[in-house]
Specification:
Low-confidence stretches: none
Distance between the termini: 32 Å
Oligomer: single chain
Number of helices: 8
Length: about 190
């Protein structure tokens, strides 16, 4: 979901089994989102587990929200840890054919981050700010998990620009996007 309000509206139509939320900061919207989910749980008289994925900037938010979180995962995510956490809340069958901490094959990791960058590029062409923020954030998260620091910095620059915190002119945005693609390619070479 592009933001917490969209997620809450979607929950009115179909209640999820679990919520994964990235805690990055400093961003008061994160705190507000967790409070909204808590209130929604109370209003429903049901409990939807809230699992936080904490990045480098989210530790202070995790401490502030700890009593409202059901589980906490730290980036970079390890597949086995993610699976074990989700298995606590979902009816998941045991892993087969892959060791719990075995990383995804490089072509899959590359496909994930490339897909986010392509979606960002499509959103940029439509000037769809919500999706620009969403996919730049996802690309940044993927780059952090991959330890692709330069790519993470460039994706962060695109996200901050889309959020309006550090605006870029269109030509600067396009140069940053091109540099992000180059950084990703170099990381996988």
């Amino acid at each position: 979901m592009p933001d917490s309000l969209a997620a809450l509206n979607a929950m009115d139509l179909k209640v999820p089994d679990v919520i994964l939320m990235a805690l990055e900061g400093p961003d008061a919207a994160v705190y507000q989102a967790v409070l909204r989910f808590t209130v929604a749980n109370l209003a429903r008289h049901a409990h939807i587990p809230l699992v936080a994925i904490v990045g480098q900037g989210g530790e202070s938010w995790r401490r502030a929200l700890d009593s409202r979180l059901d589980s906490v995962l730290h980036t970079p995510l390890r597949p086995g840890e993610l699976y074990a956490t989700l298995a606590r809340w979902l009816d998941l069958s045991p892993l087969a054919g892959q060791a719990p901490d075995e990383p995804l094959p490089p072509r899959w990791r590359r496909a994930c981050i490339d897909g986010d960058v392509q979606e960002y590029e499509r959103a940029l062409a439509r000037q769809d700010i919500a999706n620009m923020v969403h996919f730049a954030h996802r690309a940044k998260g993927a780059a952090l998990v991959l330890h692709a620091d330069q790519a993470a910095e460039l994706a962060d620059r695109l996200e901050l620009a889309a959020r309006g915190y550090a605006p870029l002119q269109l030509d600067e945005t396009q140069r940053t996007l091109a540099a992000l693609k180059v950084a990703i390619a170099r990381h996988f070479d």
